[in-house]
TrEMBL record:
Name of the gene: msrA
NCBIfam families: msrA
Residue positions of the active site: 10
Catalytic activity, as annotated: [thioredoxin]-disulfide + L-methionine + H2O = L-methionine (S)-S-oxide + [thioredoxin]-dithiol; L-methionyl-[protein] + [thioredoxin]-disulfide + H2O = L-methionyl-(S)-S-oxide-[protein] + [thioredoxin]-dithiol
InterPro entries: Met_Sox_Rdtase_MsrA_dom (IPR002569), Met_Sox_Rdtase_MsrA_sf (IPR036509)
Keyword flag Oxidoreductase: yes
Stated family: Belongs to the MsrA Met sulfoxide reductase family.
Name of protein: Peptide methionine sulfoxide reductase MsrA
Domain Peptide methionine sulphoxide reductase MsrA: 5-131
UniProt xrefs under Pfam families: PMSR
Keyword Oxidoreductase among UniProt keywords: yes
Length: 132
């Protein structure tokens, strides 16, 4: 099994598109990217913990690839908005692809570059790609 973590606005909105796919073992909502261990919802909403709402996806790479997950991610977010997603505003809703290893980083960066070059968006793709 492999793990991926994506942030793109409210984590509840990020669950459904992934959990419906074959090869997805689990999708779990939570917080990542911050410095306070085990923050509460209220602490994260205070914008003082550095956390981002995200989903952790455990998947079977024999049934679905990491590249497939990244492609799903792009359809669920506005990659041109660095300050939240849709009605969800603030740093805790920022769009981020968190990578586990160099292979995931390379796949995410290549996908981001291809999306930018596609001309689908008039504005730059600002989604961050960061280590977990």
């Amino acid at each position: 099994m492999q793990r991926s973590i994506f942030a793109g606005g409210c984590f509840w909105c990020m669950v459904q598109p992934f959990e419906e796919k074959e090869g997805i073992v689990s999708v779990r909502s939570g917080y990542t990217g911050g410095y306070l261990p085990n923050p509460t919802y209220e602490e994260v909403c205070s914008h003082k913990t550095g956390h981002t709402e995200a989903v952790e996806i455990i998947f079977d790479e024999n049934d679905i690839s990491y590249a497939d997950l990244v492609a799903i991610y792009w359809t669920q977010t506005d990659p041109t908005d660095a300050f939240g997603q849709f009605a969800d505003r603030g740093d805790n809703y920022r769009p981020v692809i968190f990578y586990e290893n160099d292979e995931q980083k390379q796949i995410a960066e290549n996908s981001k570059r291809q999306l930018q070059e596609s001309g689908r968006f008039d504005s730059p793709i600002v989604t961050k790609i960061e280590p977990v």
